[in-house]
Structure formats: C-alpha cells, structure tokens
Write a structure and sequence with these properties.
single chain, alpha+beta, phage-related protein like fold, 2 domains, 7-stranded mixed β-sheet, 10 helices
Length: 509
Amino acid sequence: MKQDRRLTIDAELRAQTPQPETPEDGPAENSADPQPKDSQTSKGKTISGYAIVWNSPSKDLGGFTEIVTPKALDGVDLSNVLMLNNHDYTQVLASVKAGTLTLETDDKGLHFTAQLPNTSFANDVYEEVQSGNVDSCSFGFDSDDDTDEWTKDDDGNITRTINQVKSLFDVSVVAVPAYDDTNVQVDTRSYEKFINQEKEPDNMAKQTIIDPNGNENKTGIPAFEQYVRSHGELRDGLTTDGASAVIPKELITPVFQLKQSKYNLAQYATVKQVSSGTGTYPISTSQQKAVLATKQELADINDVNANMFTDVPFDVKTRAGKIALSNEVVEDSEVDIVSEVKNQLQQLVDNTDNTQIMGLLTGSSFAKATATSIDDLKKIFNVTLDPALSKMWLVNQSGFNYLDTLKDSEGRYLLQPNPTAPSGFTLLGAPVVMISDKLLANNADGTFPMIAGDLSQAVAVFRRNQVTAQWDKFDQFSQGLSVIVRNDYEVIDKSAVINVALGTTTSGK
C-alpha cells in the first residue's frame, strides 16, 4: 500500500506546561508507595497543533502544488492513528486507541492533542517543541486517486486537490530541515494523465517530474522503481517475463569484502582539532642558529636576533559525498546494507586524507635526492636528516621489494624483521611503512619513490569537524547517506622529510 507523507508548516505546534498536581489528585500524604518524582513531573506533558491545514498550498511537489479540502477526512477511520516522532514507528508518542491522542476537525484543519509518555525520546520532543526548535508537523496517508482534481491556471501553475483520503496512518512531529521542496512521493500516473489531457507541449512540467535537475538525457526515476511504485503497471524499458519483473530471487550473504590495503596516513602526521575555519599554527623554528651575545656588567641586554616562530596558515575546506539507497534494497536485503555503506563512506574519508597528505609529501615543498645504493640511503639517514627526527621510511610495494633485495657486504639482507614496524621490517633501525603502488605510483624514469624522515613534523592535518547524515528521500522511496569533512592539510617543516628516488633509472628514459 502506497503511503504518502506531507509536511505541514502552519502546524501551530505548541507544548503545554505540565500542571502541578492538586492535593485531591495527588497521592495520600502517608502513602506507602509514592510515585517517583520523575513520573509526577512528566504528568500532564502535552503537545497540540494542526497535522493538516485545509486549503493550504503545499510547497512545489515536482511541477505542481497540492491542497487538502475540508471534506477530505469525511468517513475516514481515525481510531488507529498514531502520533510518531519523525514518522519513526519505533518512537510512538501517542495513540488514538490508547486514548492519549485526540484528533478533531475544525474550520482550520485537523487538530490534535497528544499526552506524551514518560520516555526519553518523548521528553526530548517536548523540550524541542517547548523551546521552539521544532514547530512543524507531517501526516502519513493514502489518497483516493479517483477523487483527485487537477487544475491549471492562466499562469501555468498546476494544483492537485485532494478531495478524499482513504486512510490516515500517522501524524508526526518533524523538523523542517529534514524535508525539502521534493519531500513527497508523487503520484506520477495521475499527474501525467492530466498533462496528457491538456494536449499541450508542456515538456518542462513533465521534465520536472521525470528529472528534477532538468537534464533531458536522464530518466530520473529508474524503470525498476517505476515498476515497483506502480505495482507492475509501468514497465518503460523494463524486461518482463509474463507479468513479473525479471529480478534476482536470491541474495547471498554476508557481504563479501574484497581484500585491500587499509591505512590512513593521517596517523603519521600531526593532527590538530581547530575551532574555526581559518587561523594560524605557530611553529617553533627547528633550525635555530642564533647565539647569546656577551654582556658587560650593568650593560643593557641585547635583543636576540632570531626568528623563534613561524606561522603556518590554515584554511579549512569542506569535502563531502552522498549516496542514495532504494528502500526496496534496504528492506529486502538480508544484511545491514546501510551499515555497509557507512563503512564505505568512512573509507572515502581515509582515502581523502591519504590523497591530500601524499600530494604534499610528493610536491615541491620538500627536497629531493637519489639513492642507488645502501650507502646513499645511509647518507640521507645519517647526514641529510636531522638526528632529532623520529625517522621512518615510506615506500610503495615496488620500492619495498627493491629494499628487500639489498644485502650488505657479507650477504645479509638489510631489512631486519621487527614486529612493531607497520611492515614488519626496519631499515637502519627505522620502521618501514609500505603502501600500495596505486597510492604512491612508481616514477616515470623507472625509479621507486621513497619518503624518508618524520611525517609528524612535515605535515599537519587541521580537522574542523566530520558529520555523517542519513535522511529519507520520500519522493524516490529511498534514503540518503552522506559524509562531510572539514579539513585542511599543510606543510609545517620543509626539512623534516626527503623525497628519494630509489634505484637506477631505466635505460632509454
């Protein structure tokens, strides 16, 4: 059964302040079993407002607006209607059957009064309504399409009039930001029927329904979803066998995770949590060469001719991505597909860190060197890099394989096993970190890239915040998931690492 949901902005949603109990209503003074204080406090917490407002135009629902007439609820059974929090059937706030929800129609619309239970989410809803943070309602219903009326005014504005509601399922307290101008599941069949009857080339109106982005080379609503929504009546571009859609009959579980390297280079960098989008990070000068001047007795102290600090500016950028999951897939899947997608979105966050940090490490900020032998590596390790650095070797797979073949003059392999190192090996006493060739590609001349030094002193990651969101897309019978990160990546010490070209160049390069 199709269930539509509509947002009611003019809900006049209010929270009634609980009234203190009178002595007549309260427990006996010497009662042996007094009620808990929280129960008494919450007694009388009610909210009221309008779930439906008659003849009030909706927002644009995809090429048309909609109104509900005062007669639309005539004859509708309201005895099983629930009040929900954001249409969530796991968060029931009140019920007509239980006597905690009262629904009455008047000249304005469908008015409700709800007595809230003493639950954590109900108390949260009450506080949000009382503070004014939440002031809108919504209602879930099934309309009688045969009684709908479609009209078009002289300006081309199309209005759908709902004259009769089949069933009213729930009224809900909702937050307006959870909805947008296309927050409803649109009945495309009756709308297209009306458009076709107009016999006018109103392609823009049709396109709004089919593709909200106005891109004519897209179908907008996939054929499979058309088939599902229309109960098999619409099969545009869909292969069928008899009267049924050709779809898989079995889903093999659990989700098979392909093996791949997982790492986040941010764990080696310096990570700073910042409270604003822009600012500076003071860095103590590492190569301090100034000395103290000799001072004569009673003479003034000379100023120190040294730059003690440098400021690294940061400017946080917002990076985000989203994905839509059909509710058919979510509901019919035998695995928690939503959790799987959230894991994949977190992997995108790690990939973003890796790409941004690697771009800095392999860029022009750091010095470059070549190493064709172990002696060259020793010089970089012992001389070029400051001895105070916490050194490491960062190589790709090909570079690690090259290092793994190096031997000393007595034929002993130079890579030494060390279970504490990320790769399980050390070189010259420093841990070796191996990453994929896909992230750190081989050099064009045939040499292998290596980054030697202290990544924590070379790069800083400024994290503002990370947000994940999940919301219902009622117009597509799907749900969206997104992840948003606000970070910046900056070089803080150009002498902390060296870009090394490892090995010999390929002939002809």
